[in-house]
Amino acid sequence: MNARWSHAAPLACLALALIAGACTRQPARATEIVFWQFWPAEVITPLLEKFEAENPGLKVRMEQLTWDSGKDKILAAVASGTVPDLCELGSTYMPRFLASRALADWSAGIADLKPGIRGWEMCSIGDANYGVPWVLGTRALFYNKTLFARAGLDSLHPPETWDQLYRAAAAIQRLGHGVHGYGVSANDRQKLFKKFMPYAWGNGGEILSTGLDSARFDSPENRAALAFYLTLRKVGTLGLQDALDRDFKDGKLGLEISGAWLLKQIPNEVPTLRYGVALVPKPATDRGTHASFAGGEVLVGFQASKRKEAALRLARFLVRPDNVEALVEAAQSVQPATVGADTTAFYLARPNQQVMIRQFEFARFTPNHPEWDAMEAAIEDAVEKALYDTQSPPESSAAHAAADAQRAIVELLEKH
Amino acid sequence: MRAHSRVTSWTLLSPWVFAFGLFGLFPFLFSFAASFTDYSPIRASEARFVGLANYARALHEPAFWSALSNTALFVIGTIPFTTALALALALAVQPAFRGRTVLRVGFFVPSVVSVVVLSLVFKGLYAADGSLNTLLRALHLPAPDWLLDPRAALPAIMAMDVWSASGYYMIIFLAGLEAIPRELYEAARLEGASSWDCFAHITLPLLRPTLLFVLVVNTIRSLQIFAEVFVMTHGGPLGRTTTLVYYLYEQAFSRFNLGYASAVAYLLFLLSLMLAWLQLKVVGGRGAKG
What we know:
The structure holds 2 protein chains of 2 kinds.
Chain A: H1 2-23, E1 32-37, H2 41-54, E2 59-64, H3 70-80, E3 86-90, H4 94-100, H5 107-110, E4 124-125, E5 128-129, E6 132-144, H6 145-150, H7 162-173, E7 180-185, H8 192-202, H9 220-231, E8 236-239, H10 241-249, E9 253-259, H11 261-269, E10 275-278, E11 292-300, H12 308-318, H13 321-331, E12 335-336, H14 345-348, H15 351-360, E13 363-365, H16 372-388, H17 394-415
Parallel strand pairs in A: 1-2, 1-3, 7-8, 7-9, 11-13
Antiparallel strand pairs in A: 3-11, 4-5, 6-9, 6-10, 6-11, 6-12
Chain B: H1 2-34, H2 53-60, H3 62-93, H4 100-112, H5 115-125, H6 131-138, H7 153-178, H8 182-190, H9 195-206, H10 208-223, H11 227-232, H12 244-254, H13 258-284
Helix pairs in contact in B: 2-13, 3-7, 3-10, 3-12, 4-7, 7-10, 10-13, 12-13
C-alpha cells in the first residue's frame, strides 16, 4: 500500500502542479501587442523590430498563421474571447467578421489615413471603418512571349479584347505537343471566381444591386461573359490554379489570368521564361472595361482586445508608405494599398509589377454581404457545372448557370 | 486496502481523465448542445435554441444527401478491397522466408506517413501529366485528368486509400493469424485437408474476431474521410468528392454554421453506430468478441 502511495504521490503532485501552473500563468505584460499575421517571419520581423525601436514602450509578440488553418484559429479565438490585439484578415473573410460585430471600430483612429490608402471597401460598413487596408492583390493576364512568337503572334501586343484573346489562344493551341492556348480555371474554391468574374464585370455584369439587397447575376452581360469563358475551353486546357501556373512556368501555356505571386516565382524558378503581363481583355475596343478582381489584406483589431490603442498604433505603423513598400518589396506577391505606390523606384523599374497596379484602376472588390462566401461558392458551382457541360452550346449552359447562381443568391439574400 | 488502491488508481488515471474530459467529453457534449442551436463562433453570445431544425434542414438539404452518397460510395468501394488486400498481404508475409521483414515493413510504411503527405504525393501522381498518365500513355491507354474528371476523382482517392490503409490492417490480421494454434493446421494436414480447406475451415473462422475489428474500425475511419479530399480536390469536381466530413467542415469553418455542422456530425455518428451494430450482427455471429 505504502509502496503504491509512494508512486502515486509524486504523480498527483505533478498533475496538481500542472493544473496550478495553467491557472496562475502570469498575464502578458501590458505593453505586449499580440499580432497574428500570415507573412513568413523573414518578411515581417524586420518591420516589427523597427516598430519596437521607434516605440520603446511597446513589444510585439508575432504569431504566424497559415492560409490553410489561419481562419480556423482566428475563429476559435473570437469564439473563446482570447483574441489577438492586431490581426491580418483576408478580404474574403471580412464580410462575416464585419457582420459579427467582433471587430473594433477604428473610424476615429484612422480618419486621417483615408485619402492615402485604397481598398476601404474591404473593411467598412457605411462610414464606419473596422480595419485598415494593408496590401492589395488583383488578377491580370499573363502571356508567354515565346509561344506568341512561335504561333506567329506579335509578342509586343498582348490581346486587348475578347476576340483578340480567343484568336491568340487558338493560334497557340494549334502548336500542339502539349502546349495549350488559354488556362481555364476548374473549380478551385475562391479561385475560379477570381478568374471568371473579371470577364463578367468587364462586360458590365453585376452580382448584387448597389444596396446589396437584390440579386443581379442572371443578366445578359453575365450570360455573355460566361458563354465567352466557356468557349475558351476549346482553345485551352482546364486545370486548377497551381497546375495552370505550373504549365505557364513550364512554357506550356500561352495565356492565363493569374496573380502577382507569379512575378515572384518566375524569376526564381524559371528565369529564362519570356513572358508579359497585360490588363484583362475587355469585350470589344468600343465596349466594356478591363475589369478584374480586387482583394487584399486588412489589419483589424477586436472589441475584446485589451490593448486596442497599442494595436492601432502598430497598424498605423505597418500601413505607413515606407513600411508597406518594404513589405511588398520583400514579398513581391502583392501590391501596396498606398495611393501612388506605382511611382516608387521599385515599381518604375518593374513594368510587370506596374501593370498589376494599373489593373487596380479597373478592379472590383467583392460585395460586403454577410453571406458573401456562400454566394461566391454558388457562382463557382454554377460556372463549374457549365464548364463540365460539354454537350450543350455555350450560350445555353451559360444561361442555365446564370439562372442557377441567381436562384442560390436569392435564397441567401432571403436568409438575411 | 481496497479504498486505497481505488484512490491510487484514480490518481494514476487522473491525467488521462482530465485530458479526456477537457478534449474529449466536453467538446462531445458541447457540440451535441450546439446541434440544437444556431450557434456561430463569431456570434457566440447570440446563439438561439432551434430545436431539431438543424437536423430537419440536413435531411432536406440536397447537398447533405449528395455528401452522404459520396461517403457511402467511398465506404462500399474501399472496405471490401482494403480488407481483402490486407488479408492477402498478411497471408503472404506470415510464413517465414528471407526478406519477409522487409516486405512487412514496406507494406506498413504508408500507414506511418502523414495522410497529408501521401495526398500531396498522389496529387502529383494523378496530375494530367503526372507519372500515372505518363505510364498509361506509354501503354496506349486512356489517361484522364484524374482529379478533375467527375467520374474518376472519387475512385482515384479510393484507390489511394486502399493502397495506404491495407498495410495497417495487414498488421492486425498478422496478429490474428499468429494467435491461431499451429496444431490445428497440422491435424488438418494429417487428415488430408488442402490449403484451401485449411483457409476456409480454420483460418477464416478463427480470424472472425479480427475480421470484425478490422471491418468496424475501417468503416468508422472511412466514414470520416476528410484530409485526402481537403488536400487533393477540395470536394470537387462538381462536388463528387464532397464527403460528409468535408461538407461538415465547410459548413463549420467557411460558413460559420457550427450549429448545423454539429447536427451533421451527430447524424454521421448515428450512422457509424448503426453500421457498427450491423457488422457486429452479421460478421460477429455467436461467441465472437469484438
